[in-house]
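User: Predict the full complex structure for these chains.
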Amino acid sequence: MGISRRAFEEQLLALLGSLNGVARRLTASPADAEDLVAETVTRAWRALDSLKSEAAFRAWIFSILHNTFVSELRRASARPTLVSMECDEAEEEEGQFSIFEQMHQPFLLWFSNPEQAFLDKLLREDLDRALASLPEHHQVVVVLSDLEGLSYGEIAEALGIPVGTVRSRLARARGALQKILWQQAQEHGLNATSPASRQGNEGAMVRKEEGFIP
Amino acid sequence: MTKHEIECEQALRQVFEYIDHVLDDTERAAMEHHLHTCHSCYSRVEFEARLKAKLGELKKHDADPTVRERIKGLLERF
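Assistant: Here is the predicted structure of the two-chain assembly.
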């Protein structure tokens, strides 16, 4: 056994919020998430010998959660879009979308900063919705990296992919997330102007009903 | 340009690795040297770091009590 029963329970309970949070995002259903966490814990207990050290616990338990999701719950999930986990190679090598590149206006820096104003106005709900809209293989790397704080090495271990793939997939996922945020902003009445449509100095990102305060 | 200096193109390629703290010491020093001299790249890093931090705020720290109770019950049966 890699660690003692007591250490297993302590580490598990300390990570339960994270495990349940990731499970909720993977399954998009509280009931499925609870079942996924329970099955993960059961499998983890049975596979305790495969845990190399206490320090490796986090990546190890997320690996079991992810494998359990892929093998058992994915087909039954309520998620509207399920995408193969091995689709990186099939993705088009298009340039990554960047809100910063859409909005940054160096000539306005002396009195405004549109891209920072965009972030100021970004609501938790906007981010939640955008994250939920990502394909699963993108969503999981963003959640493990930016919500759960796993290192590239831990994510690689958890997903069973090389570190280099974590790096490239995370970059693509962030680009995809920003593209969704950008589209959401435009759909919700934000006056977002791209370089192609800018006119004069009125290129700030503002909700139409609000005034833009530099 | 010394070996510690990088151009915008390389800095932009390393933005995510910089905010994710995966650059080695030399790469990080070169990046920070560039950021001190290039306001555009500095702004890009600031934007990406703030967006990452906002995502971090979505994390739910505590499991639902029902999940916690179910898992505790499960552990007792092991």
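Helices of chain B lie at 8-13, 15-19, 25-37, 39-56, 65-77.
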